[in-house]
């Protein structure tokens, strides 16, 4: 018995020292880019790629493919200790495909004929098409909930934004890229919350932002504003957004290619039935 127990212990110590430790040591989480710590990391059992336990935990509730190599996984090593050679192997339950229903929301068209002038190269003022409550009359949480229901209704009714601008976001340096990301990420977060019903879609925000930046970089290299996206380019979004992927991409581009804030864009964007 002692011999068998010793062999198991040596086997576990070998796994920690020769597999788990090299997977984590000096590495950053591919999702959040934070430095990995052995005790709070997860090493996927099959491909041995390592992530923050929290990041891969959220990811695993949506997909069971490694974000780095696309290999299937259904378990990981966590709570790893180099000193004691111990770890925990967590087996994941099967993914459950739940249908997502969103509450209906009637778009509000206020009686006033307020207008706002575009801050880009428009010659006509834009009509103020909707209001979600007078400033100061409702709390920020109420306002946010109303806007979230409105965004969900856009996808339920299969509407699409009428493009307000054909401005191109040009990537020149990291500063420009960071500015674009700071502007679009809050919009992406709200849109994903509306579509998925997930209060914390941080993992998917990272995926969407990466795809959009890659799109801008490709458009610069091809020197064509009418870049054909094709299914392959949007493939990383399909597992999350399913049949709403193309609708989401259209909405993202319509917002990103204006210079409006989210608040102004919400008020002035016009919608039509897609098709």
Automatic annotation (TrEMBL):
Q: Which gene encodes it?
A: LOC107426882
Is Lipid metabolism given among the entry's keywords?
Answer: no
Instruction: Report any one BP term from Gene Ontology.
Output: protein monoubiquitination
| Molecular-function GO terms, alphabetical | ubiquitin protein ligase activity; zinc ion binding
What is the E.C. number? 2.3.2.27
Tell me which Pfam families the record gives: zf-RING_2 (PF13639)
The RING-type domain sits at 29-70
Gene3D superfamilies reported in the protein's UniProt record: Zinc/RING finger domain, C3HC4 (zinc finger) (3.30.40.10)
Q: Under which name does UniProt file this protein?
A: RING-type E3 ubiquitin transferase
Domain of life according to the entry: Eukaryota
Give UniProt keywords alphabetically.
Metal-binding, Transcription, Transcription regulation, Transferase, Zinc, Zinc-finger
The organism named in the record is: Ziziphus jujuba (Chinese jujube)
Signal in keyword set: no
As its record notes, the protein acts as a catalyst of:
S-ubiquitinyl-[E2 ubiquitin-conjugating enzyme]-L-cysteine + [acceptor protein]-L-lysine = [E2 ubiquitin-conjugating enzyme]-L-cysteine + N(6)-ubiquitinyl-[acceptor protein]-L-lysine
């Amino acid at each position: 018995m002692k011999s068998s127990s010793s062999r198991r212990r040596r086997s576990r110590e070998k796994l920690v020292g020769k597999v788990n430790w090299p997977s984590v040591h000096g590495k950053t989480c591919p999702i959040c880019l934070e430095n990995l710590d052995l005790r709070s990391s997860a090493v996927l059992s099959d491909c041995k790629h390592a992530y923050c336990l929290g990041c891969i935990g959220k990811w695993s509730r949506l997909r069971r493919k490694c974000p780095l190599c696309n290999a299937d996984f259904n378990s990981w090593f966590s709570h790893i200790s180099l000193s004691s050679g111990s770890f925990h192997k967590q087996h994941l339950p099967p993914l459950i495909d739940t249908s997502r229903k969103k509450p209906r929301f009637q778009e509000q068209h206020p009686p006033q004929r307020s207008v706002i002038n575009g801050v880009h190269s428009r010659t006509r003022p834009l009509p103020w098409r909707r209001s979600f409550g007078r400033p100061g009359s409702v709390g920020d949480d109420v306002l946010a909930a109303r806007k979230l229901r409105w965004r969900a209704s856009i996808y339920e009714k299969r509407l699409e934004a009428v493009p307000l601008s054909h401005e191109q976001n040009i990537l020149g340096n990291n500063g420009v890229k960071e500015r674009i990301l700071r502007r679009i990420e809050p919009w992406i977060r709200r849109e994903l919350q509306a579509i998925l019903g997930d209060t914390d879609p941080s993992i998917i925000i990272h995926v969407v932002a990466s795809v959009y930046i890659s799109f801008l970089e490709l458009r610069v290299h091809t020197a064509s504003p009418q870049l054909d996206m094709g299914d392959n380019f949007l493939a990383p979004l399909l597992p999350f957004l399913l049949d709403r992927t193309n609708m989401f991409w259209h909405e993202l581009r319509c917002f990103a290619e204006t210079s409006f804030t989210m608040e102004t864009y919400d008020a002035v964007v016009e919608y039509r039935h897609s098709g």
